[in-house]
Amino acid sequence: MSQAQNDPPASPHDTAQFRIRRAFLLPLGLLLALSVALLIVTLLQGQSTGKIIVLSALIIPVAGIFLESATRSAEIGPEAITIHKFLRNRSLRYDEVTEVEAVVVKKRAFLSISSEAHFLIISNAYTDFPTLVQSLLSHVPDEVVTEQARKMAADPPVKSSDIVSCWIATTLMALILAVQLYGRF
User: Fold this and answer.
1) Cβ contacts of residue 39 below 8 Å, gap of 6+?
2) Are 160 and 21 in contact (CB under 8 A)?
3) 0.85 cut: is pTM over it?
4) Which pLDDT belongs to residue 70?
5) Cα-based distances in Å from 97 to 140, 145, 158, 163
6) CA 54, CA 42: separation in Å to the nearest integer?
7) Which helix (H) or strand (E) holds 3?
8) Partners of 17 in beta bridges
9) C or N: which end of the chain has fewer Cβ atoms within 10 Å?
10) SS3 labels along 155-185
């Protein structure tokens, strides 16, 4: 039985899916679209090769980050946690977990789930991160959870600076596109 996206599992036999926050994906997608539009306008206007190269160089990492973020999800299943990424998946069975650690830097939180052979890292970029952490910790053995992970799970930080930064970049790109189209601000 599968729960709706970002819903916690109702029982240990259910699966919960967590995705990267839409509040981040929306401005990132707009930034990508505006960047591509600016590149098209620049090409149509016959602008310098330097501008075209700089815009192309900007679009490549933005497109990569958007694609990676839009396709990333964490699945808390009855037997394992699975991280789905673009063209790849990695699972870690709960009975193989040797340590769950947390690192918090300012408002950025990372949860590291380790086994003898592999590890997974989950950040607080996921929607409903507190529920994700609680669900994960309810599946792993208590003795593998560090004190730092317990503290972070009790009060997970909420990060919004990445969203604000993305909206600022999107706004600036829209202004640049307007100037390119209309020749003034």
Assistant:
1) 52, 55, 56, 59
2) no
3) no
4) 95
5) 7, 9, 26, 32
6) 11
7) none
8) 75
9) C
10) CCCCCCHHHHHHHHHHHHHHHHHHHHHHCCC
Q: What angle do CA 178, 160, 86 make, to 5 degrees?
A: 80
Query: What does the alpha-carbon distance between residue 77 and residue 114 come to, in Å, rounded to a whole number?
Result: 17
3-state secondary structure of 15: strand
DSSP letter for 94, please.
Answer: G
- 88-93 and 119-123 strand pairing: unpaired
Question: CA-CA distance, 168 to 39, in Å (whole number)?
Answer: 19
**Per-residue pLDDT, 13:** 59
Residue-level pLDDT at 105: 87
Geometric angle at alpha carbon 98, from 136 and 14, rounded to 5°: 25
Give residue 11's pLDDT.
Answer: 52
Q: Indicate the angle between helix axes 49-71 and 22-44, nearest 10 degrees.
A: 160
* Tens digits of residue pLDDT in 7-31: 444 455 578 899 999 999 999 999 9
pLDDT of residue 154: 86
Residue with tokens 């989950």: 122
Residue ranges of the chain with pLDDT lower than 50? 1-10, 185
Instruction: Find out whether 103 and 112 touch, Cβ atoms under 8 Å.
Output: yes
C-alpha 129: how far from its chain's center?
Answer: 11
User: How large is the C-alpha radius of gyration of the chain?
Assistant: 20
Cβ neighbors of 73 (< 8 A, separation 6 or more) are 17, 18, 19, 20, 83, 84
